[in-house]
Amino acid sequence: MLGGLESRTDALLRIQQLLVLTIWLVPVNWILGTSLIWLYAVALASVGSMRRPSGPEYALLGLSAALLLGLAVSGNPSVDRTLGSIYNLTLIGALIIIMNAARHLARSRPAELQRLWAAAIALFLVQALWAFGIWVAVMSTGILDAQVKTLVVGAIGDLPGVLAEYSRALIVETDWTSTGPTLRVSGFGLYATEGALLVALAGLLAAIRLAATRRPVLLIALVEVVTVIALVLAASRTTLLGYVASAVLLAGLTGRRALVGVLITLPIAVLAVGATLHYGPAALSEAFTALNSSRAGSSDTRFLSYTLAIDMVMQENPLTGLGIKPRDPSLLEIPIGSHSSFISMFTKGGFVALSLFTAFYGIIIARMIGVQQRLLLSGPGDPIQGRRVALIYLSRAVFVILVWWTTEDFDAPAQAVLVTAICLGTFWGLSESTQPETRLPWGRGTARVRILPRTTDQTGRLQGHVPALHSPVSDAR
What we know:
Blueprint: H1 2-24, H2 26-32, H3 35-46, H4 55-74, H5 79-108, H6 114-141, E1 146-149, H7 153-156, E2 168-177, E3 180-185, H8 192-212, H9 217-234, H10 237-246, H11 257-279, H12 281-293, H13 296-316, H14 341-377, H15 388-407, H16 414-433, E4 437-439, E5 446-452, E6 466-473
Helix pairs in contact: 1-3, 1-5, 1-6, 3-5, 4-5, 4-14, 5-16, 6-8, 6-9, 8-9, 8-15, 8-16, 10-15, 13-14, 14-15, 15-16
């Protein structure tokens, strides 16, 4: 049994090293064009350490089966589009494996996450310096479009389909808005919206380390401000909206005291809602129109993609979809059904895939709400209080991811899949580690856990709540 425990410990340490290295290598893989290769490498190295799947992972497995079914029955002759669907399926498979590995690490060895949060600080600093440096360069030179060949994949030559995206590193691009051309700093993603997601997630993971080590509040506030500025430079409306809205989840940091704040502000909120309903419809309509027209071409393209995809699926095969996302340059410059994970799943897998993705989405939302409720309502004896800082900022990261998925494809860019898997896995694993009953890491059975009241560390270091294991209880009880 000791040998088994040692091998599991070695596996967890290997997972930790892979995840930390993944964070460090985000900018390196971007310029080399090797983010997809690294994604597959991490997944292959982690597959042998997989444990029983969680609810979201089961939902993703079902979704993969639905997408395979849609692809099998479609009989589509387009080789390029079929390869694109297979590429998407491999990314979902990698998401399942890496999420499972991160979950297992966070549940079994939460103290090992410290190096992950520290690596996120370094990544966030590099991202911020890069974004502001590019902005200064653009303001100095007036160049609004710039991209370079990636150093490894770009040197190979022309690649087919989506693989061609990894042969170039987009630095800055021009996008047309209601006031004229404007720049978008792409960050370390295949495109600006992926780069925006990466900087938002890195900032939130970095904040875990800063908040838990009692850094000055102004330093954490500076991270928030810098993140917002970087998202503005990326001109990613959805990511910015999700990030700002996620700040509401910080209420969980105050525990029950947040309820006092709610009671104090409730009368003001009621008056504000009443005034909005009476005077605000016209103002809200104008604000929505302004937001939509800020990048009118982008919005029009997305809505056209959605309507074309829905019409095609409903005409051909509503149950299992088209199997692929078709491309018709005469109608649309992007694949039909792109720029929304929900529409994408419906396009490729019909109502079957859409229902499974919605289940996956709903399971994550339910867990996030449950964690927030426990943080707000539980007393100091609840083990979740020992993970408060990490769970709050991970909840914010999960919220941003969920919002991002509404207007982007969750199974398209490799870097986003990698960091998303880390955030979802560590969030789920930490929340599982605070449950009053936990499964033993060796053999079958469960153990009742009694929490000994000791001084807690917000990041879950060993001096936090320590579980005292009692006799195993059979699964058959």
